[in-house]
Specification:
Length: 129
């Protein structure tokens, strides 16, 4: 089971404000910029993200039902700020990978400890900002 929803609420209010300033610069981290599908409000969500060729793999630490995941799926993509660059990602695919083969082995071990088995895989668009 992914991390509890109560922790997600705490992270939304506290942790995301702390990690936000550096999450877009450090390896293994990023900020997903997405628009609320009901509210239309732009939101920024810190994530664990890994590059696999022209694809980006985001660990769904709160599971595939997280609101930001639904927003990205509904929009058909998102912006990703990672390592100081802003990229346009498209074609979100929800992947169930219990072996965590999509991420580096050390990361897979950590994600295994918190039972993360779902990932969002997106392709990089040709145009970048």
């Amino acid at each position: 089971m992914p991390l509890p929803r109560g922790l997600a609420r705490f992270n939304l209010v506290v942790t995301n404000r702390i990690t936000g300033p550096f999450a877009g610069r450090l390896p293994g981290f990023g900020i997903v910029v997405h628009t609320g599908r009901k509210s239309g409000v732009e939101r920024r969500t810190p994530v664990n993200v890994f590059r696999a060729g022209e694809r980006y793999v985001i660990a769904l630490t709160y599971g595939p039902e997280a609101q930001w995941v639904r927003n990205v799926q509904a929009a058909g993509g998102c912006e990703l700020i990672t390592r100081g660059r802003q990229l346009r990602l498209r074609d979100p695919q929800l992947v169930h990978d219990p072996a965590r083969e999509l991420v580096p082995r050390p990361v897979a071990m950590i994600l295994g400890a918190i039972a993360v088995e779902h990932f969002l895989v997106l392709d990089r668009s040709i145009t970048e900002r």
